UniProtKB/TrEMBL annotation:
Enzyme class: lyase
Annotated compartments: Endoplasmic reticulum membrane
Family stated for the protein in its record: Belongs to the sterol desaturase family.
GO biological process: lipid biosynthetic process
Molecular function (Gene Ontology), one example: aldehyde oxygenase (deformylating) activity
InterPro entries assigned: Fatty_acid_hydroxylase, Sterol_Desaturase_Related
GO cellular component terms, A-Z: endoplasmic reticulum membrane
EC number: 4.1.99.5
Membrane protein topology class: Multi-pass membrane protein
Transmembrane segments: 35-58, 182-209
Organism ancestry: Eukaryota, Viridiplantae, Streptophyta, Embryophyta, Tracheophyta
Main subcellular location: endoplasmic reticulum
Protein name: aldehyde oxygenase (deformylating)
Domain Fatty acid hydroxylase residue range list: 133-267
Length: 294
């Protein structure tokens, strides 16, 4: 809720006219309690996890296998509509039960101790991008170690095995997990925000960007035109798909966003060996085809 009663008061405080985005923010947030604005993050998470996986899900269900096979990381696995629906329903209930309480727990901390702005001016695109990068780096580092902990025998058998039910993941499987895992990893997403406080708009964007990234790495598709291929050190779907493919035995690819934690701590070797072996096999098949045609 803004402290200005009118747009004229807001512009007087800014010392300039509001931009169109600031005017839109003023109209939306002027009379809305800050806690309600804060809780919008849960709505964004639910919308992203519901809508973002749909295009690739429909592609897998409706398109011929010959069309999707070149881009599907595990082309032999074809999930049924019932499997997609079961995953979505379970995921939705887990998100509601595990993430809905987080605003009630975290809001007093962020509002009083950390500070989260709702006023004007809005952050610049550069400030927003820099803060989102910090949040990705912090969450990726914490997520790496939490993920390694989840692969200890006790944690895997009691908690993490739920997430690995889908050895060939798809978008809806990103948050498909035990409620305790969703809660802990969801809490880790707030760590960067506590280190670098931000505006409410950036807070919202973070809870759109992070689910989108999780859906991307669980998509099961390696699309050549994906813009994420231009992000340095980004793991992507192929990197994380190998982790699901190996399952409980996996000692590789624990990071959720970038690859450098796995490289620094040596948990990338299994994936590198697998990728090298796969490339050698493809080269051998190509050579055999050339010999056969000759």
């Amino acid at each position: 809720m803004l402290q200005y009663a009118t747009a004229a008061e807001a512009e007087a405080a800014l010392g300039r006219a509001m931009t169109w985005s600031e005017a839109a923010w003023f109209r939306y947030s002027a009379t809305t309690p800050d806690f309600c604005l804060y809780c919008h993050s849960v709505v964004f998470v639910l919308l992203v996890y519901t809508l973002a996986p749909l295009p690739l899900v429909l592609l897998e269900l409706r398109a011929p296998a010959k069309l999707t096979a070149p881009y599907k990381l595990q082309p032999r696995v074809r999930l049924s509509p019932a499997a997609f629906l079961r995953c979505f329903k379970n995921t939705l209930s887990t998100i509601v039960l595990s993430t809905a309480p987080l605003p009630f727990i975290s809001y007093p901390v962020f509002r009083v101790m950390v500070g989260i702005r709702t006023g004007l001016p809005l952050p610049s695109p550069g400030e927003t991008a820099a803060q989102l990068l910090v949040y990705l780096l912090v969450e990726d580092y914490l997520g790496y170690w939490i993920h390694r902990l989840l692969h200890t025998e006790w944690c895997y058998d009691r908690i993490h095995r739920v997430h690995h039910e889908f050895e060939a993941p798809m978008g809806y499987a990103a948050p498909y997990a035990h409620w305790a895992e969703v809660f802990v990893l969801g809490s880790a997403s707030f760590a960067g925000l506590a280190i670098v406080p931000c505006h409410m708009v950036t807070f919202w964007l973070w809870f759109i960007v992070r689910p989108m990234e999780a859906i991307d790495v669980h998509s099961g598709f390696d699309l050549p035109f994906s813009p994420t291929k231009f992000i340095p050190f980004y793991g992507g779907a192929e990197f994380h798909d190998y982790h699901h493919y190996v399952g409980k035995r996996s000692k590789s690819n624990f990071a959720s966003v970038f690859t450098f934690c796995d490289y620094i701590y040596g948990t990338h070797k299994g994936y590198r060996y697998h990728k090298a072996a796969r490339m050698a096999k493809l080269q051998e098949m190509a050579q055999n085809n050339v010999v056969g045609k000759g």
